[in-house]
Structure prediction request, 697 residues.
Amino acid sequence: MKSLVLAEKPSVARELARVLGCNQKNKSYIEGNNHIVTWALGHLIELKMPEHYDSKYTTWRLEDLPIIPDRMGLKVIRQTTAQYKAIENLTKRKDIKDIIIATDAGREGELVARWILEKAKCNKPIKRLWISSQTDKAIKDGFKSLKPGKQFDDLYESAVCRAEADWLIGLNVSRALTTKYKDPLSAGRVQTPTLAMMIEREKEISSFVPKEYFTIQASVGILSAEWEKNGEKRIFSAETAEKIKGKLEGQKAILTEVARKKKSEPQPLPYDLTELQRDANKRFGFSAKKTLNVLQGLYEQHKLVTYPRTDSRYLTKDMEATMNDRLQAISSGYKDEARPALANKGKVLARRVFNNEKVSDHHAIIPTEQHLNLGKLENDERKLYDLIVRRFLALFYPAYEYETIQARFDIAGETLSARETNIVEQGFKTVLGKDDDSSKHQNLGNLTKGKAFNISSVTVSKKLTEPPNRYTEADILGRMEKYGLGTPATRADIIEKLISAEAVERQNSRLYPTKKGKQLIDLVNDELTSPELTAKWEKELEEIARGKGNPKAFKAKIRKQTDQLVSEIKASDKSYRAHNLTGSKCPECGEFLKERKTKEGKILVCSSIDCSFRKHKDPKLSNRRCPQCHKKMEIHNGKAGTYFQCRRCNIVEKAEERKKTVSKHEERKLKQKYSPSQESFGNSLGDLLKAALEKKE
Prediction:
């Protein structure tokens, strides 16, 4: 008898099969003596769409809403039917004694597997592989200590509640808005409050009125000092600033106080996903989605980091015994940085990182015991891995210690102050980078209280208060985390969804609400824009996952909420105008065309929901270069077939022209691609072209 192992992706399945000794490869599974390893392709099963309950829902009508099925049904995703059927057949094999769920160890991974097994009506015993890294050792240890499937029933219930809530609210509210205002408008229980936060920031910026203020700097002996009063350095009156300047000029300053304070900054904790996404956005401009994708590669393919989709920044106490092995693994790429930690036998100085109570499903993201070969990493992978490793190494270094010194001077009742910071112990900043303190060292600690200094110059600087900045992805991720909007695994997708729905756009690494987004937030129910409400729902989902919540009560509440939200939209008297309407009309139905930006350039689409007309506004550029100006040529389709045209030179070429003409650059590329060894470098270009054509055929 054998166990059927269900992984989430083919790449993970191949690794599991290798470790388990399965080597009989099949199109949809890999078989061994004791195990058969198969895989999903992400989700194979999804919730049924409205038209699967009743064909009348194929056409979107406001009067048909809300659509609230008594019991939500499941369907196989059409594109993945073949793989689902293969898994279904495997579950029915008589030599399969049990199922081992080996999908991602989290809420969504549980849903992927359970829906497949539910749709296949599989009643065989379930076990769970729950691991936080993909190294051979972790996989072997995980299979030695498989957990009973029942232990994760509550996690599955939480995942179902989340999926049904998103379907009911997202689908019904989006359909209601779209049909009422005749434009694709998307809303949801997480994306809408996230958009609302961006809109709120936009209102703060637009309503901001800059104020003029002044600061005063003075030279006190050889020292630089600033005027201040009760900690405030700004003066909002030009007259007052000039009056203070007059009082200071040519006077003597008496040192009244030298305050020294020793401070300590503890080692930062390792990353959770959201914190890593924020840092990668600040440091490298990575989007949250890009960070997650790169991180997934470091986890699955290279096996260099632990499970990515974690919300914890702590480690369990039993992991302390693995620290030295992890240091040894990374030492080939971080020899100097790891040496002090290894000399101390891998002892972690930041003891607070070991806290079992603050680790839920997964611990923080840290390096694995897999041997490091930096040469195998691409540039983006290396950047992200470097962040993770240095944050991990910081745990083995002392705290950062420094001393602040503040000197205060009295001049005719006015106060000038000078500050400096002196580093006592660089500590963990040795591996994280240089201290960012930019204060000028003025040796304030050597000053004597009561001493008098001449004031040699006084300068008044005029400035303006500035509006708050629009959010970066790092900012909005922090806000989403603060309000409990989404999970570490879903926040990146929420941002991307807002962008694809044209409610938000990226400009210079910041997120700008569009005209459509601003109108949308006015149309959506006030309750749905509240971060507090969505955060409350997320908290309830977490309680269900821990076995402390009531799934039935949650589902009933969401259904009631859906009905209320749709009723409010139906009754609303608000108006909406598509911001991207053009003066051109659709040649198929006569409605006005809308202009949209896509990766392939601007396109024109019909404003009617029932019409699918679309075309490129500007001709699409090809990779063919103009022989005269070398700019990319436009590609057109005419009666005689496809042709290329240079807008600048007006040169026109048919698609088949240049077939026999090869540039020097193309010739070099052909030689590199089709010369298998050094011996073939003498081959003629004709032979290489022949090889290329044979390859294509």
Notes: The radius of gyration is 32 Å.
